[in-house]
Amino acid sequence: MSNIYNDNDYKWIKEIMLYPQTLEKHLHYFKDTSRIKVPEDPIEKVIFQDRAKKAIRKIAQNKGHMLMIGKPGTGKSLLAGMFKHVLDRSLGDYIRPKESIAAYPGKDGNHVRFAYADPEKLDDYITKVKEEIETAKNSVEKFSLTEQISSVRKVKRFLLLAMCISAVAGVFFPPAFVFTGLTGIGAIFMFMQENNHKVQEKIHQEAQSGNSFSVKHISDMVPEVLYDPRKEANLMINISEPDSRSMKGGFRHDPYQSGNLQTPIHKRAYLGAHAKAPIIYIDELKTLIKTRYMSGLLEIMQNKEYILEGGKHTGSGAADRSENHLKADNIIIACCNHDTLRHLQEEGDGAFLSRIEDKGEIINMENAVPETAEHIKQVAQYIKQEIINLEKEFEDTWGKVIEKEGHEGVRTRSEKIFGRKLPVNYNLRVREFSRSAVEEIVKELRCRSADGKLSCILRPINGIIKTAELDAIVDNSKFVKPRHVRSALEEHLSLEGAISKEIIEHKKDLKKYIASMTDSIGYVVGLAVIRSSGSGRMFGQPLPIHCQINTGGSDVITAPGKIGDIAKAAAQNVRASIKKLMHGVNIPYAGYEMHIEYIQAHGGVEGDSASVAMDVGLISDYIQQPVSQKYGITGSLTGDIILAVGGVTEKVRSIMDTDLTMLGACVPWQNKYDIEPLLINMEFEYIQEQEVPGIRIFRTEGKEDPFDIFFCKTKYNAYRILMGLSREDVENRMTARSKRDIEFSRQVAGKHKGSPPAEQDI
Description:
alpha/beta, Rossmann fold, 26 helices
């Protein structure tokens, strides 16, 4: 058989081994991040998203709309904030609202009108109106009969005094009692007159109190300022749950609806984002769809004005509405994921997308970017920015402690946090990243992507950078080193990562048990991957597979368990590949039942990356040749060719743990660049098994614990590594097995043909 590898193929593998040197050259301009400068332009602080940054500058120039589509953590929210910052510095003085919005009563109690006015003039007007109302209120004289009551009271007292004197005189001169009676009657009359005046005064005062209600009605007519640009100067409003009330505004409930105490409509009105902010940032369009506000938003984007309505079917405010329109010339900045995009494409035949494209741009955020020198520099810049942010956080948290107690106080208090003694010279300050530590971050971004690209999902990287910083601080290290980054990666496992770690621990014992209890025929170690939905990080794990081929006439393939459609199709493809091989070398073909079992894959299996592993397991069982359990394999089989699959870096990294006792892996030739990140800060060398090239990585210092990675173009390369057989050896043994099966089938058929007929039941 001719060698399918050419000289350039071997040269490419050796060029891959130069990757660590190439990466170091890209970062040659600094030894640590202290020499890295952060750009002043806020948009340039967002890395990787060049197309989105270019679009933001164009939109800031013409006040257009923008929709950013991408996975969480790619920088959508950060770009929106930078857009606001840039627009504020450039055109903020011109697009920021200058006029206040005032509300005043309309034609009846359920209608309101709005007016736009200069804030200072409006304040002067309202102040004057209130002063005039207060003057009118105070100008009403209070009704009083104090003087009349005082005069009557004086006469009453005089009569009472005369009555007393005449009564005393009557003892000595009886006719004086006549005068006593007359003065008593007069005193009683004056008493009644006094009470009559008091009653009249009270009645008139209560009647006069109605004038205050008249003043209240006048007060209810005073305009209400709903928006004052001097107090609400935000250029952009962030709406997390857009609906009619948060976007348009509305009318508050009135608890006093009777007894002449009701609140006038213009004092119950409030404004939403459309009327108050030039820029509206909708963080997740999915919430807008759930609240069913899409139609309202489309109408306002088209008309740039709207009528304020109560928006309730019953209750207070149901019939409230404005008589005139409110202005709504907004810039819409929105974000969504790809699942929401599919809904937007179907909703109204893509009406919202059409509105955006009419006066703006739809941006598909990059999930991964090529690993170029410029992008590597941006990674170093991003790390420096996070260091600066962490320094500010330290200042906010520990600044007062350092000021009052010094660093000794910080050390003492930190010991209570960590629960152990810290070095005497412990100093709570940020540490710069060494060049090799930056390389570890680049390595991690490469591992989270494929095809020689860097992952753009950066939010989870923030936590890794900060944790590595804290580890370096606790160690009192001068710089953040690679070991600090690797330790942070171990701590920052997502839910899927924690599950994957538990599965790997289980698979260690399972793999050892299978190897000790079987002859390794039909058993193969496949490689699987779990992707974290939150961080985008992938977690590899070994996937033990057992395959069997039994002679039979059904010619079927079964893969019991919870497997997806793609995995089922891959199994059918493997059967077709084996049948094609048999026909290609003129092997007599008998019907075969092929069984594939993913051992203890309780969560199910999906994808075609195990198809080459299935092929190796089936061929192993067919020719009764053991498969090395020290090597894992992954790849998508199409005919004889092994095609690229995803997550190769993490798949290989998952079995490099020395406790797993694995010695290597076979990966598709097209995935050769996915091995580059594994070479960072490691010792390695070129190897070759027969014609198959590979790289040997030493997992411990001193070139100990080698791990061999082979790059396979066809399934025959995998046979060579895993079973030690050439293509000719495999074909010859398959021919011999097929002939034995045909002869066996003939013997069985002959026995049945020559046997006496069975007795029939009557």
